[in-house]
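Technical annex B. To support the medicinal chemistry partners, we prepared a structural model of the target in complex with zinc ion, based solely on the information shown next.
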Amino acid sequence: VASDDHATLDELRRQIAIATRMLVAAGIVEYSGHLSVRIPSARDQLLIQRVDDVRSALVPEDLLLVTLDGDILSGTGKPPSELPIHTEIYRSRPDVGAAAHFHHDPTMVFSLVEGCPLQLVKNHASRWISGIPTHRDPSHIATLDQGRELAATLGSHHALLMRGHGEVVVAEDVRTLFADVVHFVENAAAFAHAAVLGPVQPLGADDMARFTATFDRARHARKLWSYYTTTHCADGVFPPEWIRA
Ligand SMILES: [Zn+2]
């Protein structure tokens, strides 16, 4: 059960702005890339930033409310050109409540190296035990057809690499999405470090089953969110009133 089913539109706006700013602060999102959230009470609608908004200065009120057909219901300005990534994933995946697209090269490089697929080496990477597909088309996902092709590559998985381009991660809500994105790039970094030391023995299905047996995903996402928001708020990454009840 998604923990944010009852979040108001204003709360969702703040969550997207906070998560985006924190991912910029973490060096994962930069001048490009975007997060979206599906509206739980209107499941054919989503919130997403505008194409030219500076990711590190995102303001909740400026986010656009957009339908899965790309119609803007509230806000002024244009959505990102890669909006079809979000709309076509939401259309094909009822379980997805939030999505992130970013361009993190240390993670993306695993889409380029022959015989070196991204492997799962951290327990929190259990989220991707079903696999991390690579989308072969390196172009911007700017059309509906491209969005559908990307959603088909994602299938029932929870993350993919876009060859020579970036990453997509999907989750049930914004806080779990934030935790997943952090863990996704951490896993890639740990794998890269391990591979320098010697042949890597990734965690397998049995290891992951053992881990997930006692793992509370929603609680973990809240813990990570609490840690990062407290730390980054103190650092001035976003205004303190955004996390006051
Ligand atoms: Zn992109």
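Notes passed to the chemistry partners:
The chain has seven helices and eight strands.
Residues 174-197 form the longest helix (24 residues).
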